[in-house]
Amino acid sequence: xxxxxxxxxxxxxxxxxxxxxxxxxxxxxxxxxxxxxxxxxxxxxxxxxxxxxxxxxxxxxxxxxxxxxxxxxxxxxxxxxxxxxxxxxxxxxxxxxxxxxxxxxxxxxxxxxxxxxxxxxxxxxxxxxxxxxxxxxxxxxxxxxxxxxxxxxxxxxxxxxxxxxxxxxxxxxxxxxx
Amino acid sequence: xxxxxxxxxxxxxxxxxxxxxxxxxxxxxxxxxxxxxxxxxxxxxxxxxxxxxxxxxxxxxxxxxxxxxxxxxxxxxxxxxxxxxxxxxxxxxxxxxxxxxxxxxxxxxxxxxxxxxxxxxxxxxxxxxxxxxxxxxxxxxxxxxxxxxxxxxxxxxxxx
Lengths: 178, 160
Description:
The structure holds two protein chains of two kinds. Chain A contains eight helices and no strands. Chain A is an all-alpha fold. Chain A folds into two domains: about 1-65, no CATH class; about 75-175, no CATH class. In chain A, α5 (about 75-90) crosses α6 (about 110-115). Chain A is elongated. The mean pLDDT of chain A is about 90. Mean pLDDT of chain B is about 60; it is low at about 25-55, about 115-120 and about 150-160. Chain B has one domain (about 25-150). Chain B contains five helices and five strands, in the order ααβαββββαα. Classes of the chains: A mainly alpha, B alpha+beta. At the A-B interface, α3, α4, α5, α6 and α7 of A face α1, α2, α3 and α5 of B.
């Protein structure tokens, strides 16, 4: 959709010369002057099919294939594997550092996902805290990994978030000491 | 902090992992865009594989259902009279387990390709492409959904 809007596909332009936002719902409404039950998986597919195959966009097969960001099955499988592993690690944070649906959760799901996505389980952070204390945690969370070419931190540099994580493990440490 | 110190800390935790850089796959016709999202649980409980309503089935995912997934799919799982059921708007929906769904999906795929004349739309995507990739795709879908190794792409299809 983004590609079609960027290339200013004439069928996506309204009378005022404006283009819809790139979301499927916006494009659908623009093309058919009606809405569909977005986020219902089946309705999503039906709507997408209508947009791509039965609309005034008249997209060629070549355009459909080349602009669909199709990737190899191997890459898709690799991505799936990564996400499966991340999800498994994410579950280790639930009810501890991350409490879904609780306003007082030390960190949000997005941060827990980021930690899990970087290869860490809750137990890894706990062990690190026990062995090296704050220094170890701060280093792992805020520094770019030595194996990475990126200059971005492994998790985050945001003081508020790092402080919340440190506080959590310090409380755990105090509780286990008493 | 010295590099040696950082090495010491990094050796105490698992190696850094990052998401593969490839884009998300688009399985046109077959899955909802929800499968392109990050959490498979978001889509695992609701995976229609065709635009034809009478061929759609919800897949009942036995594992824990993510609350965010429920917000997207509007599906919840509850135990009613000792049996786990999948609900939409608090009404039970027809659901089957993953392996049953997969088998039905593959049957649907084969039937779709065996009877192309029944279709209203006859583009290259409807005819030539499925014929080309059916055998590979059949195996690929089974393996992706079962999270096992994906077969290598036949050389003739690598340009697709």
